[in-house]
Design goal:
Helix content is about 50%, strand content about 15%. The chain has about 300 residues and is an alpha/beta fold. InterPro entries: Ac_transferase_dom_sf, Acyl_transferase_dom, Acyl_Trfase/lysoPLipase, Mal-CoA-ACP_Trans/PKS_FabD, Malonyl_CoA-ACP_transAc, Malonyl_CoA-ACP_transAc_FabD, Malonyl_transacylase_ACP-bd.
Length: about 300
C-alpha cells in the first residue's frame, strides 16, 4: 500500500518573494503574517516579499518567514491537502510538521518559532560560531574528526543530512580545524557555510534554556499521524515527548538521513515538500529513489495539484 510523507524545509530555504501570491490569495494567510509582524515588531510580509536578502537571512526573521510560507501553503490548500501517513521537517521545519498533524495549532506553532528564532539569534551573538558541510566521510569518520578538532574549539556533527553530506557546527577555530582534518581523512569537500551561528551545537545552549521555559506551558497534543523527530529519526506520537524533543533539538544533531531511512522502512512511496525551495526533495531523490517527489511552493504548484486531484 502506497504511503505519503509531508516534508517541511528549514533555514536556508528562504528566497526574496516567497509566499507573496499565497498572501494575496487568502485573508487567513494575511492574518498569520500580521500576527508574526506584531510579535517581531517588523513587517515580515514586506521583508519576505521585497527583502533585502541579507536582512531576510537573519535567524530572527528567516525562521518565522519560512514557517509562514509552509503554513500559508497548507492554508491555501485547505481541504485539498494531500492525504499523508507521516510528517517530518528539517530543524525549524519540524514545527510545521507538528502543525499539520495537529500537535500544535498554527498560531501556537508560529509563536513558538518566533520565540525560538529570537532565542537562537541571541545565542549566536553570545556564542559566535559557524558551520561547514563535509562530503564523502562516514558518520564515524566525522565524529572522529570532530573529537580531534575539539582541541582547537567546540565542534560537533550538526546535520546528518544524507549518506554523503554531514554538516558540522561549532566555534570558528574548531570548525576550521575539522575541515582541515576532514580533507586529510579523504573528504571530497569540506566548506564553511554562510550561516549566522553554530546551530545544533552546545553553543546554542542559552536558546535551549529559553525555549524550555517558553514551551513549558505550551499545549502540545498527540499528532494525528506520526511525526519523525529530528533528534531520534524515529516516529513520535506523544505530546510530552514532543515537548522534550523540541528542547533537545536546539543543541542535538538533526538526524535527517535516519529520518529518510525510517520512512523508507515504513513503506513511503511519495514525498511532498511544502514550503520554499526543493532542498529536501533534492536529498530524498538520492536517499529515497523509489519515491515520487513533488513540491508545493507557489500558488501555481497548489493549483496544479488541485486540478490533478492528487
Amino acid at each position: 500500500m502506497s504511503k505519503t510523507a509531508l516534508f517541511f524545509p528549514g533555514q536556508a530555504s528562504q528566497y526574496v518573494g516567497m509566499g507573496r501570491e499565497l498572501y494575496d490569495n487568502s485573508a487567513e494567510v494575511r492574518r498569520m503574517y500580521e500576527l508574526v509582524s506584531d510579535l517581531l515588531e517588523t513587517d515580515i510580509a514586506k521583508l519576505s516579499f521585497e527583502g533585502p536578502a541579507e536582512e531576510l537571512k537573519r535567524t530572527k526573521y528567516t525562521q518565522p518567514a519560512i514557517m509562514l510560507h509552509s503554513l500559508s501553503a497548507l492554508t491555501v490548500l485547505g481541504d485539498d491537502r494531500p492525504k499523508f501517513d507521516f510528517a517530518a521537517g528539517h530543524s525549524l521545519g519540524e514545527y510545521a510538521a507538528l502543525a499539520v498533524t495537529g500537535a500544535l495549532s498554527f498560531d501556537t506553532a508560529l509563536k513558538a518559532v518566533v520565540r525560538r528564532a529570537t532565542l537562537m539569534e541571541e545565542a549566536c551573538v553570545q556564542n559566535p560560531g559557524t558551520m561547514a558541510a563535509v562530503m564523502g566521510l562516514s558518520e564515524e569518520q566525522i565524529e572522529s574528526v570532530c573529537r580531534e578538532a575539539s582541541a582547537d574549539g567546540v565542534v560537533v556533527p550538526a546535520n546528518f543530512n544524507s549518506a554523503n553530506q554531514i554538516v558540522i557546527s561549532g566555534s570558528l577555530a574548531g570548525v576550521e580545524k575539522a575541515c582541515v582534518l576532514a580533507k586529510q581523512a579523504g573528504a571530497k569537500r569540506a566548506m564553511l557555510l554562510e550561516v549566522g551561528g553554530a546551530f545544533h551545537s552546545p553553543l546554542m545552549s542559552p536558546a535551549r534554556d529559553g525555549l524550555r521555559e517558553f514551551l513549558r506551558d505550551t499545549p502540545i497534543a498527540a499528532p494525528v499521524v506520526p511525526v519523525v523527530a529530528n533528534v531520534t529519526g524515529s516516529p513520535v506520537r506523544n505530546g510530552e515527548e514532543i515537548r522534550l524533543l523540541l528542547v533537545d533539538q536546539i543543541t542535538a544533531p538533526v538526524r535527517w538521513a535516519q529520518t529518510m531511512k525510517t520512512l523508507n522502512d515504513s513503506g513511503v512511496t511519495k514525498v511532498v515538500e511544502i514550503g520554499p525551495g526543493k532542498v529536501l526533495t533534492g536529498m530524498a531523490k538520492r536517499e529515497m529513489p523509489q519515491c515520487e517527489m513533488s513540491n508545493l511552493d507557489t500558488l501555481a504548484d497548489i493549483r496544479a495539484l488541485t486540478v490533478v486531484g492528487a
